[in-house]
What does this fold into?
Amino acid sequence: MRALEDLLARLASNDFDRREYALFQLGLILDWSNLEEGVELAARALSREQLRLRLSSDEQEMVADHLLQLALRLKESRASAIWTLGKVEGVVLLGPLLALIKAIGEQLSDEAAYQACCALGKCLAEGNSISAPVRASLRDAKLMLILDRWRQGGDKRLQMTAGRAIAVIKQLDG
It folds into this structure.
């Protein structure tokens, strides 16, 4: 657990590069914990102590809260924080992600918005496991307005991912 505590402490660093590298390492640890892509990269980029970490759902929820607070607080690290947040398991991810999009979605750079849409797409892929209250929050007018603005923006990747998210949300209703 000392490795996780060290990473979380480095997230609070005023040194941009140190904070960004900690976000990268934390993303790899989350992938490693959830046995998703990047396992080979994790094996090369993480210390032995970090590789021993397997974050439980409760630990991932705590990490998600740290990442949400970081994204709200530090504009220059939003894209990286949201990328890392997107590595949290889908069941844990959706609540903090929706809160983030509703709170600062209109302020996100195209890259940060793209990362948010990728993370949202990951959550929406687990459609059958989304609870009724969370499904209702997906229909929130503000969320849909933000996604629609992203869909109509100038960044092609963002347009596509936002458009897919809107389509899947509408499909969940039907």
In short: The chain has one domain: 2-173.
